[in-house]
């Protein structure tokens, strides 16, 4: 993918990831907070959850919420760095393959080589960061399109993972670690401890993206990488850092995935990259870069998770979950263009109406 070449309007200020003019601040605060794509996704999440709670049999049990959080935790983790990458106008399709590769490495290093599980996990995360660094170097310094690079490394990293284990699965993990991966924060409550990790990382990425000079540089790159370079942003280094973060956190998600299911396989998390990208775009991040907010992305991940969980209660719909994810991905890409054109037409009609009214008023003057 390549970044857009449009330049923000003169006098615009970069705040929450988009070029805002003085006219954008003429609306009341409640409209600027509530009338956004992020707020719409949060409202949709509440509505879908409430509907499922009332209409889907057995959906209201605490066990359902517990397994919902366990299922979406890896997607929540990977969506954090993916948000920043897409804001720059790039994309990383290799994240699920890094999950599978780190899963295989944990299995081989712990079960076969005898390393302690924490040490095996650290090695797997380091390899994930290296895999992300390869992506970042080819995109940022060689200048190759991220779409082409990460399609290639998607196949490469998955091929290495499958090649190392074949069809074999490593399952001999200590019970204390597999239990820890599924442990609740408070016994009897439907909140697994992995949510604490997600919360800490979400706060860190929110501060990085929305309240730091590094984050402002990320938005500037997405709006116009050439202008960002002239304004002092190290575009190449920023992209490299983001891809390394994506690789490291994807590898950590792979370690969690392995312990949660108690199995290291080369095909673990196959197809997860589509759910991550769909959630990020559904959460209000522009596929063209330059716009996005992390709270919308978190709501997008949970929305897809709630839909998946509700559909699993209907055996006739289980096989159609990927169809729903695909439809949401298409809608999340198409809807911003459709809405911007619709709002443009409405503004044009309002302008014509006001000019017509003004002209009529002038003609009626004595």
UniProtKB/TrEMBL annotation:
Keyword Transmembrane helix attached: yes
Subcellular location: Cell membrane
Coiled coil: none
Membrane topology type: Multi-pass membrane protein
One GO term describing the cellular component: plasma membrane
Pfam families registered for this protein in UniProt: BPD_transp_2
Main location: membrane
Xref: InterPro entries: ABC_transp_permease (IPR001851)
Tree of life domain: Bacteria
Transmembrane segments: 35-54, 66-87, 93-113, 120-144, 193-219, 240-259, 271-289, 296-315, 321-339
Keywords: Cell inner membrane, Cell membrane, Membrane, Transmembrane, Transmembrane helix, Transport
Protein name from the UniProt record: Autoinducer 2 import system permease protein LsrD
Biological source species: Nocardioides marinus
């Amino acid at each position: 993918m390549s970044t857009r070449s449009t330049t923000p309007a003169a006098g615009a200020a970069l705040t929450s990831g988009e070029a805002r003019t003085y006219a954008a601040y003429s609306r009341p605060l409640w409209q600027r907070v509530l009338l956004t794509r992020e707020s719409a996704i949060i409202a949709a999440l509440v509505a879908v959850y409430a509907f499922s709670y009332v209409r889907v049999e057995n959906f209201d049990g605490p066990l359902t919420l517990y397994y919902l959080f366990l299922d979406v935790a890896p997607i929540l983790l990977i969506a954090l760095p993916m948000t920043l990458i897409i804001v720059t106008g790039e994309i990383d399709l290799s994240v699920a393959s890094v999950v599978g590769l780190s899963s295989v490495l944990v299995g081989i290093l712990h079960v076969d080589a005898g390393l302690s599980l924490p040490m095996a996990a650290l090695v797997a995360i380091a390899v994930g960061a290296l895999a992300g660094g390869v992506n970042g170097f080819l995109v940022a310094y060689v200048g190759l399109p991220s779409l082409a690079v990460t399609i290639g490394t998607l196949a490469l990293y998955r091929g290495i993972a499958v090649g190392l284990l074949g069809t074999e699965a490593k399952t001999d993990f200590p019970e204390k670690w597999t239990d820890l991966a599924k442990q609740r924060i408070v016994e009897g409550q439907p909140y697994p401890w992995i949510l604490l990790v997600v919360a800490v990382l979400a706060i860190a990425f929110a501060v990085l993206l929305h309240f730091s000079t590094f984050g402002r540089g990320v938005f500037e790159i997405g709006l116009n990488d050439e202008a960002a370079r002239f304004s002092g942003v190290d575009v190449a280094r920023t992209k490299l850092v983001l891809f390394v973060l994506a690789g490291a956190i994807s590898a950590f998600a792979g370690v969690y995935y392995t312990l949660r299911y108690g199995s290291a396989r080369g095909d673990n998390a196959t197809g997860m990259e589509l759910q991550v990208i769909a959630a990020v775009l559904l959460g209000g991040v522009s596929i063209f870069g330059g716009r996005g907010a992390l709270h919308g992305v978190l709501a997008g991940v949970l929305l897809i998770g709630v839909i998946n969980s509700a559909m699993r209660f209907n055996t006739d719909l289980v096989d159609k979950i990927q169809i729903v994810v695909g439809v949401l991905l298409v809608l999340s890409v198409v809807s911003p263009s459709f809405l911007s054109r619709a709002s443009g037409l409405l503004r044009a009609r309002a302008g014509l109406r006001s000019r017509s009214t003004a002209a009529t008023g002038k003609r009626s003057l004595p």
